[in-house]
Amino acid sequence: MAKLQDKVVVITGGISGIGKASAELFNKEGAKLVLVDLDESKGNKVAEEFGGETIFVQADVTSEEDAKRVFDKTIEKFGRVDILFNNAGIGATKPTHEVSYAEYRQTVNVDLDAVFLFSKLAIDYFREQGSGNIINTASMYGWIGAAGSAAYNAAKGGVINLTRSLGVEYAKENIRVNALCPGFIDTPIIPAEVKEALAESTPIGRLGTSEEMAKAALFLASDDSSFMTANTLTVDGGFTAQ
Ligand SMILES: NC(=O)C1=CN([C@@H]2O[C@H](COP(=O)(O)OP(=O)(O)OC[C@H]3O[C@@H](n4cnc5c(N)ncnc54)[C@H](O)[C@@H]3O)[C@@H](O)[C@H]2O)C=CC1
Ligand SMILES: CC(=O)C(C)=O
């Protein structure tokens, strides 16, 4: 039996990197997908590759109006929503003294505030339905300090504790909330010129792949993790143990 048969899954940042690999795996496991991202033509192409049970909704995750439209389209097409994968994100690599307040706000807006916005809207449907599952892509940088990405790290730390708080708050309503905390993964968010150094700094000696993150996300999305909520899954090649 497929692990996500007929489950309706909304994946933000679903057309690149970790989100796209997860969409591919979830699709193989029988899910109906709503891919959410910024680039309309790329999004429609990716959705077409997946076939009839996938739609793409162009949206900026920081916009409340766009977020509401995502759920309206999801209900219009599939009649329900079972899983929300808050995965969209932007990196931020600059010394803090060079970061403007507007840049800080944008990082926190995409990487943290949007997770609250989408979760809140999903929870309304989940409470009505009597079940639901939220997966948030945080980061190992939510656990540790690292130079040059203070806003990003603050946002991801916030995602971890937002996850715990929502998980505790809605556990009795059959709504699970967990976070995936990847280490350095080979996706477009990592600048090409630092990949080798990041691989060397990782105990396993390489970057992780999007496909490896997708398998971890599938664990959180499926009943394989049925007793897990308000918690985190760190998949980092040993980085945070150093
Ligand atoms: N690649 C890595 O080493 C790590 C990535 N992460 C997190 O994984 C998540 C996925 O990132 P990757 O797959 O690595 O990068 P990616 O750049 O391949 O994917 C991120 C996606 O989010 C979308 N996105 C960005 N801003 C958006 C907005 N305002 N509205 C809608 N969509 C938006 C992008 O267009 C892109 O498709 C992010 O939350 C990132 O912070 C966490 C730890 C490590
Ligand atoms: C993007 C990135 O490098 C992490 C660790 O989140």
From TrEMBL:
One Pfam short name: adh_short_C2
Single GO MF annotation: diacetyl reductase ((S)-acetoin forming) (NAD+) activity
EC assignment: 1.1.1.304
Keywords: Oxidoreductase
Keyword Membrane: no
Catalytic activity: (S)-acetoin + NAD(+) = diacetyl + NADH + H(+)
A Gene Ontology biological process term: bile acid metabolic process
Entry superkingdom: Bacteria
Family: Belongs to the short-chain dehydrogenases/reductases (SDR) family.
Function, in words: Catalyzes the irreversible reduction of 2,3-butanediol to (S)-acetoin in the presence of NADH.
Name under which the protein is recorded: Diacetyl reductase [(S)-acetoin forming]
Organism of origin: Jeotgalicoccus coquinae
Gene designation per UniProt: gdhIV_2
